[in-house]
Design goal:
Length: 280
Amino acid sequence: MDTIESTISKSGSASYLVPLQQFIFKFLVKSLIGADPSSSKEISESGYIMLDRWLALQILPTVHIGKEVIGRGEAEFGLNQKECIHNLLFILGFNAFGGFSVFLPSLVSALVSDKTGLQEKIRKEVREKGGSTLSFDSVKEMPLVLSVVYETLRLNPPVPLQYGRARKNFQLSSHDSVFDIKKGELLCGFQTLVMRDPKIFEEPESFKADRFMNEKGSELLSYLYWSNGPQTGSPTASNKQCAAKDYVVLTAALFVAYAFRRYDSITGDSSSITAVEKAK
Ligand code: HEM
């Protein structure tokens, strides 16, 4: 209770799993074994973690740890269990966690640094639309939120460089030139430049929250390339487009919608939130 109390006064709340485990471990070692864990620094600090690990291995065969995805990898994609686990870890850690770790801070930064009353407009939209429970589907009814997400991806593509080796000879065209590309040549695309093309995007260097709204705005989606392909395209086994291209957008939209249902306003700068005003 001392630990919990001091954490509450320091951080406003305390999670209780660890203090409870520390307490019950000490109590049981004393009462069951007749030994005092504090006589060994190692046991008193991490004895309960040692028991957690030991226990986990004992009960692993009986505990559900969400192996359905691994089963699908084996049954539908012909992978063995080890390959499935490696692929899942790579997608989880690199593609998904890595991608969002770069993207979400730039999204928050765009929201808190706006000076045009954007938060007020978003607040209105997310409270009027999308029903009582937010979901991947309900945020599709929030055009401003989606446009803000697209505009952030346009100005700050989280993975700006793409490489690919030509599979055949072909001609690569830009607005005013044609380049002969030979099979085997290494190509590099720089999204940051592509998505600031003044021939496509009006005032390409400015953040325009509603840029992708309405019919004219949605035509720009075929020039939004953050996923290594146009937002109007689809990932296939041969094009290397982000497999989660739609879920990335919807997840970010959910995050924005949730934040502005919870808060009336969020104040901050490019790295910190300095104040939040709870929804009244
Ligand atoms: C903000 C988050 C994300 C960003 C910015 C992002 C961006 C990208 C980009 C740029 C590529 C192409 C890489 C290249 O070939 O050079 C890519 C590929 C890929 N992404 Fe994402 N991604 C994100 C989240 C996710 C998530 C959540 C998943 C899966 C759950 C995912 C799965 C994949 C996979 C499997 C590929 C490889 C596709 C292939 O080579 O055929 N990504 N992603």
